[in-house]
Design goal:
The protein is an all-beta fold. The chain contains no helices and 11 strands. Strands 2, 4, 5, 6, 9, 10 and 11 form a 7-stranded mixed sheet that branches. It has a 4-stranded antiparallel sheet with strand order 1-3-8-7, with no helix packed on it.
């Protein structure tokens, strides 16, 4: 089981980035998929989520209107389109899959991708 994030980098304030998370070893259609981020000196926070059906996306207030979560079930991947980035969006972004596997609750994490937004 593996989640691999990519697409992070350095961008100026107001810029855009598209993060990708490729899953292997399981089908994303069986799990709720989320994006988290952890800024320096802060706790990890959930910023966007999509259900197994891919409907009813959730966004934390601080990113609403600027970030869109999407999924490609054929590619077994999810994405995070981030627009109008701000310096406070600087963080390591993590992909997460949560669900039930073999009767037990599971929680998978990627290693993260760093996003740095300069002012």
């Amino acid at each position: 089981v593996q989640l691999v994030e990519s697409g992070g980098g350095m961008v100026e304030s107001g810029g855009s980035l598209r993060l990708s998370c490729e899953a292997s070893g399981f089908k994303i259609t069986d799990y709720h998929m989320k994006w988290f981020r952890q800024a320096p000196g802060k706790e990890r926070e959930s910023i966007a989520a999509t259900t197994r059906a891919g409907d009813k996306p959730f966004y934390v207030d601080s990113v609403k209107g600027r970030i869109t979560i999407s999924r490609d079930n054929l590619k077994n991947a999810i994405y995070l389109q981030m627009n109008d980035l701000k310096p406070e969006d600087t963080a390591v972004y993590y992909c997460n899959a949560a669900g039930v596997r073999a009767g037990e609750g599971v929680d998978y994490w990627g290693k993260g991708t760093l996003v740095t937004v300069s002012s």
